[in-house]
Amino acid sequence: MKRFLAILLCLVAFGFEVFAQQTISGTVFERNASKKELPLAGASIVWINSNVGTLSDAHGKFVLKTTNITDRRLVVSCLGFQPDTIKVNSNTPLRIVLIETGKQLNEVVITHQREASMVSIQPRKTEILTSKELKKAACCNLGESFQTNTTVDVTYRDGVTGSKELQVLGLAGAYTQLLTENAPTITGLGSTYGLYGIPGTQIDQIHVVKGPGSVIFGPESISGMINIELKDPMRADNLFVNGYVDGFARAELNVDKTLKVTKDLNTLFSFHIDRYKQKMDQNGDSFLDNPMLQNVNVLNKWKYESGNGLFSQNSIKYLHEDRQGGQMDFNFDQPHADHSMYGQQLVTNRLEFYGRTGFVMPSDNYKSLGLQYTYVLHNMDGYYGLREDDGQQQSLNLRLIYNQNLGKYNSVNLGASYRLDKIKEQFGDLYLNNDLSMPGVFAENTFTSQGKRPVSVIVGLRADVANGELVFTPRGNVKWELNKNTDVRLSAGTGFRSANILAENSNIKVSNREIVITEPLKLEKALNYGFNINRKFELNYRKGSVGLDLYRTQFANKIIPDYDTDPTKVYFSNLTGESLANNVQVEASYYILKPVELKLAYKYLDVFRKSDGVRITEPYVPRHRTVASLFYESFNRKWNANVTWQWFGSKKMPYLDEAQRNEISSYSSSSRPYSMVNLQLTRHWKNFEMYLGAENLFDFRQHNYIVGASNPYDGFFDASYIWGPIEGRRVYAGFRYKIDR
Signal peptide: which range, if any (predicted)? Predict the structure, then answer.
């Protein structure tokens, strides 16, 4: 480890050089109706008659290889702008300006279409899900945005509250760092129902990273990082309205409106309401199948670009949610201390403020200085049965970043950060204060070599003092281009986090287990390393790709919940022995017909720990998962359809006493495999589209998942024995209406 740290420090400090190959670089700008030119992110830059290309970054910048390029014409395009073809006669930096079309999509000839999902060209493998990919399903909130994605698993936590979590590499959602526009907003108490707090219609892109992310964003990324980019006030539609209703009488409405305040300042107002008040008990266990819910979400986002290097983007968001679950006949107007019926209610009020302000300094080498900031105020008040659940959280995150290009091949980020969490929670007779004060510093260098087989390297190191404990976090990523169609990536790094056991194990609350903390809980620490290879190909003039991912996570310490020793209790303790998670994923895509894309994926997960030589498989993690997705888009783009089939292998179940086993559908030490089919059909008009779909088309359900449902206050009660879907078939319909800028 010392040698590894020394190498990382040397690379960060000095970078390194290799023989140069020719490249071109430049910046893409947009010229809007007011003749103002602004950097354009996400523009496609491709050599004509080839598949060699890239996308412009957040500052409109790009770098593109010229190796083996004989026709030196660039095709530059972006949705909503007139495409341009440029003859390149030298390697001097290019300045490219695209002009808004002011026309509808079906009236514009696009030379290179933006893909629904893609893998970034950066050394750190990043899967990018665009709004086009998200529209393949209803995508009502963040937790429903990964139906066509294999990397991220969405699982239920319990059968009363309807809470879900996102799992990467087979590990619980707490080990995946969730960011909103690079801001850590979903943490602490917000992790319980945080996935419902981001409507799908507000999302522009989702970036998914397996394993350790950048040291810039903190040390918490252990199994992965998910960053949600919301709509841009300068590029979003002038007006957007989305309506949704399903067969369970759940209804949603989303309204987004952009305003141009000045030539340099734009704002976005977004309103979202999600309402479900239907009482339903399909399996006859006396408990509601879905919680009754009302979620109101208001977002106001401001963006300022001066044109002379000054940039600022700030968002303020308010969330109010009232969630009610429990038995059908429970009266929510009465005090909850009623032994005759079981009820659950949680009222959440949440305020978020986050943003970033930066300045690009005029110089020959790119230099910038930026400040990122986040403040979250979270308050919840409710109960689970007879036990009250109240909590308050205040979180402050500050991050100062300096970036500079060093010569032709290196770009360095240096900075400092500070995180402050003050969390208080009462659950029954248990009172927890989870305060965290963590200052830190970091350095990260990105190096890109030149040659026939270029290599890109990101190495980073950060040092944090977490409540008085000094912790170093080294991370490294390598990308090697074997040829223009094949990339190999390697990654390794450590991470650590402070656990919040109640918010991160909310399934305990829908039981009558006593919570026992056996010892002072330490920071969770882990090492993750991985390998992946991606190959693009062309067969019968149609494009395709295939990729292989291999990852392993090794915990130095992990907070272990023990449900098996005593069925009336759950014990929390630090890891003794070892805890490992192995992941193998194979994924392929191919256009079997020009308008029809087929995606196939298989994932193998082996998540376990060893204690006193005994191997213990982690519960609720399917060892095998297969996904097949078929997407069709008509040539005139008026129709598209998506069908996704998912197969889940068996999952290890927690121990259940023989006296209660008959209360769970087909209970055994391992659950039964099952499959689900989702489909959606969409029709597009000029400014309007309608969609109709079905989730879990063949209505597969786990019929019983609550132990002790007939008498939740006496004996053993636990509503978290869920291994499959509990809602059954969901048929839905909706519309989208927009007015372009």
Answer: 1-20
Beta bridge mates, 395: 376, 421
CA-to-CA separations, 47 to 86, 95, 239, in angstroms, rounded: 10, 16, 35
Contact of 115 with 227, CB cutoff 8 Å: no
Q: Provide CB contacts within 8 A for 471, sequence distance 6+.
A: 219, 463, 464, 465, 496, 523, 525
Q: How crowded is residue 74: how many other Cβ atoms within 10 Å of its Cβ?
A: 22
Answer whether 590's CB lies under 8 Å from 623's CB.
no
Cα torsion 205, 210, 213, 218: sign? positive
C-alpha–C-alpha distance, residues 191 and 638, integer Å: 39
Per-residue pLDDT, averaged over 594-621, amounts to 93
The β-bridge partners of 463 are 441, 472
pLDDT at 628 over 80: yes
Question: What's the CA angle centered on 370, arms 367 and 373, to 5 degrees?
Answer: 170
Give the whole-angstrom CA distance, residue 139 versus residue 6. Answer: 45
> Scanning the structure block, which residue is given the tokens 């400014």?
687
Average of per-residue pLDDT across 123-138: 85
Tokens standing for residue 308: 């002379």
The pTM (predicted TM-score) of the whole model is 0.84
Is residue 18 over pLDDT 60?
no
Question: What are the residues whose beta carbons fall under 8 Å from the beta carbon of 566, sequence distance 6 or more?
Answer: none
Look up residue 541 and give its DSSP letter. T
Give pLDDT, residue 667.
Answer: 81
Cα separation, 290 vs 296, in Å, equals: 18
Mapped onto helix, strand or coil, the DSSP state of residue 103 is: coil
CA 681 to chain centre: 25
Are 176 and 489 contacting, i.e. CB atoms less than 8 angstroms apart? no
Closest to 23 measured CA to CA, from 410, 535, 449, 350: 449
70 exposed, middle or buried (CB, 10 Å; 0-12, 13-18, 19+)?
Answer: exposed
Quick check: 88 and 452 in contact, CB under 8 A?
no
Tokens 């970091």, located at residue: 442
Read off the tokens for 78: 């972006």
The helix (H) or strand (E) run that includes residue 598 is strand 596-611
CA distances from 535 to 55, 589, 632 (A): 19, 11, 23
Evaluated on CA atoms 672, 167, 618, 718, the torsion sign reads negative
